Amino acid sequence: MADNAGCLPCGMKVMNRAARNAAIDAARADFGTQYIVFPNPAYGSWMTNFILSAIP
Asked: I need a labelling partner for 36 at 20 to 30 A (CA). Which of 1, 3, 24, 48 fits?
C-alpha cells in the first residue's frame, strides 16, 4: 500500500518521470492486486512534480 509511486518497491523513487511511467506501465497488471495506491490529497511528492511540470 502506498500513497505515490515513489513508495512502491520498484525503485521508482530514484527514477525520472519517463522511467517511472515505463515502470508503472510494465507493472500494470500488479496494480489493484500487489500494488494498492491511495492518493494523499493533502501533501506529497506529487505537489513538486505538478508545480515543476507547470513551469515552461
From this structure: 48
| CA atoms within 13 Å, Cβ hemisphere of 27 | 19
What are the two backbone dihedrals, phi and then psi, of residue 7, each rounded to the nearest 5 degrees?
Answer: -85, -10
Contact between 23 and 15 (Cβ < 8 Å): yes
Distance set, CA 16 to CA 5, 12, 23 (Å): 12, 8, 11
Q: What is the pLDDT of residues 7-47, one digit of tens each?
A: 776 667 778 888 888 988 988 898 889 888 887 777 776 67
pLDDT 10s digits, 44-54: 766 777 788 88
Stretch (H or E) spanning 48: helix 45-54
Q: What is the pTM of this model?
A: 0.55
